[in-house]
């Protein structure tokens, strides 16, 4: 990931681009430039061991928060409903094109 940002970084790139790049690298990691060499080696040579270890780390570090009281979704559904505007379609098309361009660069 660091190599990607060292090579292709410009000040024009916003947080959206950075987060999208991180998401893509999490989905399809590049073991040749892994920050954790052991994990990169496991990914390349012993994929089953890599997935087992990833599951263990996920269970340890990605636990959902525990709530003392049940969380109600009623408050969420009571919020205002967003109105559709004529410019939304153009904006969505532009975002889709931008996303495709970013993914092609990876």
UniProtKB/TrEMBL annotation:
Gene3D superfamilies on file: Ubiquitin Conjugating Enzyme
Coiled-coil intervals, chain numbering: none
Boundaries of every UBC core domain copy: 1-63
SUPFAM superfamilies, alphabetized: UBC-like (SSF54495)
Organism: Dreissena polymorpha
Transmembrane annotation, as ranges: none
Designated name of the protein: UBC core domain-containing protein
Entry-linked InterPro entries: UBC, UBQ-conjugating_enzyme/RWD
A Pfam short name: UQ_con
């Amino acid at each position: 990931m660091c190599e990607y940002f060292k090579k292709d970084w410009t000040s024009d790139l916003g947080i959206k681009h950075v987060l999208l790049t991180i998401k893509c690298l999490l989905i399809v990691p590049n073991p040749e430039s892994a920050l954790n060499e052991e994990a990169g080696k496991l990914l390349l040579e012993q994929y089953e061991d890599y997935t087992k270890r990833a599951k263990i780390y996920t269970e340890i570090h990605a636990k959902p928060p525990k709530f003392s009281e049940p969380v109600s979704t009623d408050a969420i559904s009571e919020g205002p409903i967003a109105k559709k505007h004529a410019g939304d379609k153009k904006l969505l098309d532009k975002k889709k094109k931008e996303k495709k361009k970013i993914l092609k660069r990876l």
